[in-house]
Recover the amino acids of this structure.
């Protein structure tokens, strides 16, 4: 399967790998509506970690911990930070891999793509698309980073204090 393909991965799987599923393949090919995407990405995981840390540090009350579902709290925090404040994961205090580590990861990733998808890798857009995608994820979106909880929670004692702290965009 080619993750760079314009075709949905489910269509590739059903049409290219499952030999005895022509009706399923046809249905997937004729689909006109967008498929659901998993919105629980790295940023969502980071917000979930913030909720978990807030609970561990007593920022979220025992009552709330017992009566609120953590994923719902995570969704609300992500909505607040992303939509209301118009900030991203990259605006939080982060601990990120060093550039040398990112380069090693990129080199390994390129080697695996060349091995597993040699036809794609050999195309003019193959390696360039891979490098651009890696740069966007690793350096712009900073998805290989983790939130520095010690910095984020350094002056936080309450939920409102956490929300206030998350408005910051500069960290020492």
């Amino acid at each position: 399967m080619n993750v760079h393909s314009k075709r949905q991965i489910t269509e590739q799987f059903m049409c290219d790998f499952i030999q005895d599923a022509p009706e399923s393949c046809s249905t997937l090919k004729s689909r006109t509506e967008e498929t659901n995407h998993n919105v629980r990405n790295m940023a969502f995981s980071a917000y979930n970690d913030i909720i978990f840390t807030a609970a561990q540090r007593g920022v979220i009350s025992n009552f709330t911990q017992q009566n609120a579902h953590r994923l719902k709290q995570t969704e609300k925090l992500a909505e607040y930070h992303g939509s209301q404040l118009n900030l991203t994961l990259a605006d939080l205090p982060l601990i990120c891999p060093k550039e040398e580590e990112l380069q090693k990861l990129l080199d390994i990733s390129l080697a695996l793509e060349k091995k597993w998808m040699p036809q794609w890798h050999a195309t003019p857009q193959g390696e360039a698309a891979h490098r651009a995608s890696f740069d966007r994820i690793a350096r712009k979106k900073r998805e290989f980073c983790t939130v520095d909880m010690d910095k984020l929670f350094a002056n936080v004692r309450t939920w409102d204090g956490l929300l206030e702290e998350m408005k910051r965009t500069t960290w020492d």
